[in-house]
Amino acid sequence: MKKKKFILLPLLAIFLSSCMFDTDDDGLTNWLSDQGMPSNYKVQTVTVGSLKPVSAEVFQDTRPKSAWGVGVIGAVSGMSYDLALDFALDSAFLDTLKKADSASSVLYLRLIDSYYQSEYLPSGILPIEEDLNINVSWILSEKLSKSEFKDLGEIYDTTWLRDLESWKAKKTADTTISVSISKKDSLLVLDLPSALVNDVRKNSGNRRLQVRISAPEASTIYRFYGPGHEKYYPQFFMVAEKKEKFPKMFDVYRAAVISSNHETCSDCLVLHGGTFDSLVVEFPSKPIMKALSDFYGDEFPNPQGDGNDVRQAVVMAQMTFYRDDSKGESQLGYPIRVDVGSYADSADTVVRRLESYKIDKPRILESGHPNMVFYKGDSVSLQVTAGMRDFINRASDGRSFKMMMRLAYPVLLDKDTVFYDRVVGDSDTLEVFFPHYDYARYDFTSIKEKSATLKLWLASKRGDKKDEKAATSTVREGK
Q1: Which domain holds residue 370?
Q2: For residues 83 and 73, what is the distance between their CA atoms, to the nearest angstrom?
């Protein structure tokens, strides 16, 4: 292998201080031991600036999602969310309904207490008062045999969700509901249109009823418990009136949320909170390999052997992007954590893994966590340690470096140095994160326009070179 003159730059070659590994040097020692490396290995940093992605693409996730635990309906932040419900109507009730003088129906959706009654909910969110224009479409099956009717509850949710992707309603109707929601309210009551009731009551026998409710002009979204919460599930209430009311409540078998994207810019890198939208950014290997070659004096990547280059181990890697919060839209007003994943080899298959997050306590106490948007500053820094470790080791096959980003939960305590919800004292819970997603939108288009910076903390496996001296420093932003 061709050797280059080894030049150690003091500003680049610095020890990783204990602040990145809890409170003392034991953190670094333990990490090196876990990696099978002597604890006296030097940890040095290399910074690769002016990185431009070769590709950046948002994958919008608008597939139907099960609302087993939590459901939403309405519109916000360039998205709308429809509610789909699946019911079984038995022949005995339909016979009674058919003979009734009149009939009516409502749908009860129990609002989520932990959201609408939360002490952390901004004061401007409630009350909600609006005339909610809804569209109700439905599919009423032909008569079902007893066995078919019994088997309705055994349909796999995944099968039903796939069918919802090609929803073909047989009937549809519009109606308007006056909504008033405050912290004291617990129900969203939707009077279903008479066209639906009349269509149902003229039928007999066992039937399956699927209903889809849309409110694309809503001023917000409404959050409710799904069928997985005992006593809180959506309920379809139909009343047949003759001489006296004959009510019956139909419990939903399953519920789903169908989302629609209304963004108008096809080239913009917009992520939505509360969904599984993902932004995948890909960087070329050449500038990263050149920076390593210049730093170590060795040729990168190593073209010999099995293709795995393990001359150094990545202790930590951090990618910093420019950001502009003014292009985003937040409902709750709290910072939002950005989750990151990297692509790595696993049994000859490339998989995507979520990255763990290592805490830099002094930096966080001074200026907060770097992995948040809707926050002070104009950058977001994301740790990509596992992915960069795999990438450097295997870069000889010509691969590029890929990472994924998603919007996670809002952050209540932006300078918490543990960074997870936990019990403190005897029973009090310290909530670091708001327990519900902010259905926000964030425009990351600047990633294509502004260069990124990669910082690597590396433990060299080249052995102890006594003639090399590294300057020591505290690893902190701007230092």
Answers
A1: 18-59+277-460
A2: 6
